Structures are given as C-alpha cells and as structure tokens.
Amino acid sequence: MIGIVDFQVAFPKSRITAQQMHESSGRPVADILAWTHCTEIPVFTEDEPAWELVAEVARAVLDRSRVTPDRIGQVVYAGSGEWDYPGWSPAAKVSAELGITGAHCFEVVNFCTAAATALHLATDAIAAGRIEYALILCGDQASRGVDYTDPESVSLFNTGDCAVAVLVGGQDVRFEFLRAKTVTDPSWADFYVGEHEDGRVVTRRRGRQLNLPKVYLDTFTALTHDILAAGGIGIADVRYLLVNQTDRRMHERLLDILGMPAERSVFNYDRFGHMGCGDAFIGLTDLLTGNHLDPGDLILLATSGIGFSWGVTQLRFH
Hints:
Elements: E1 3-10, E2 15-17, H1 18-25, H2 29-36, E3 40-42, H3 50-65, E4 72-79, H4 90-98, E5 104-109, H5 114-127, E6 133-138, E7 163-169, E8 175-184, E9 192-197, E10 200-205, H6 212-231, E11 238-243, H7 248-258, H8 269-272, H9 279-289, E12 298-305, E13 309-317
Helix pairs in contact: 1-2, 3-4, 6-7
C-alpha cells in the first residue's frame, strides 16, 4: 500500500481584502465578492518568504510521522513556478533547512494540478523501489501574479497563497493512492499568459473564449468516469469529490452532472478563496477535522491548472 502518510497546511499572516482590491481596480466590491466569495484572502508578502512556512509545516509532518531526513529519497516542490526567487530551487532550499541530504530535489510546474502530478510521480518512484519516502511541498506566491489594478483580471482576484507539506510512503498510510488520470488540452496554452510589468510578472487572460467552462466540465466528467470504470465502481461508491476552489458555479455544476449532492464535496470559498495546489489538502483537512471520514471511504481529487491540464486522483481513507 502506497499513499499519503501525513500532511499539513498553513497560511501566511498577511491578507488582501476585497476592499483593497476595489480601491486598486475600481471594480465594485460586489463584483469582486462574486469571484472571491470571501472578504479577505491569505497572501505571501516580501516580509514572509513562502519557503520558510513550507519548511515549518514539513518539519512538523516529519516529526509527527517519526520519519528521519535520511529516509527521504525525493523532495518535490509543486506549483506555478512563482517561487520566492527566480532561477532558484525551493525544493533544495527546504531540504537543506530540514537536513535532507540524500534526496533528489526538484520542482514540478503544472500550476494548480501540480501537487497531484507530484503525488503521481512520488507513488511511481516508491512502487518501483527507487525511494522509501517522498516529500511533496507547495508554497507558491501566486498572488504576486495578480494585477489588482486591472478590472478585467477580476476572475483571478480569488487567487491566494498557502504552504503544504505531504509525506508519501508505503507504511502507516492514511490515504492510499489507488489510481489517477491527467490530461492536457494544449489548444488553451495561450489563454493565460504571464507578462513582464513594472519589475514583476503578472498573469493576463487573453480573450473571452466562452467555451472553456464547457471544456472544463466535459473533461472532468470524462476523467471521473474513466477513473470509476478503471476501479469497477460507480459514482455512488465515492464518499467525497474534492474540486479546486476556483469557480463555485462550475463546482456545483460538476456535482450536478455527476449526480452527487453538495454534501459529498467540500466548499470553503467563503474562507480562503483559491489556494492553488493547496485546495485539495485544505478539503482533506476539513474532512478529517470534522470527523467526516470512515475507513475504506473513497475520495476523488479533481484538480486543474492553466495550460490547460485536468486530473482526477482516487484515494482510499484508512
């Protein structure tokens, strides 16, 4: 059995508020709240490096699991590539802080599905016998890429930041990794593009291609059915479906298409906004702290990232 041994999520101290977004962009607060669903969102600032908070939660996970640094064979830092510094390896930096000296440290950029991608890589490496444990880290500064002065970028105003550490191994597994499927539609490669502006990179949406929501829903639906068929199960056998907290309306529509009631998912839009790779692990945390899981429960993680990639990962709770 291979899967998630333990994990932890933490949030930066700073917040950006809907009122501040309004003052910068000129968009009415009501318009902004229609996308953010919350009045403030956690963000990293220059005074709080993301890697430091990531190292803090990673150390807590290793201590709690009693896994020593020498047993970690792979450290993967996953996200959008908006690290604390350009041309720099946050995976190596956090490993040095934790005393991990014998692992392969690298980054995976697949945007908001990068953590799921890293989980696939880690479980493959463990199953092949190449490593004993892997550490997946998430600590984007994705909010830096949002231009709050641009009223047309309001659909990105829900972007926030968090720190995540996930220990993957083959012993004392809490969430068994069963299977996953990920696909990219490259025709959307230029829909979201970073642009250099005033010494930083901001993300712009190019055009208003109205069929993206349909592609989004159709792709997630197809991947979900593929995963269910591979396991010989139906949607009724899935206890929870967790979806990236990007667009509440599409989240609700996906559940409706799949025939799943809202109570079999997690909605935390009103608390955080979209925390990138962290969304799935925030949802898992909510299920654990709320005692909503029973041994044997099946969980699907539906993640997506600009580029445009979609993935569905199936886990079993132990």
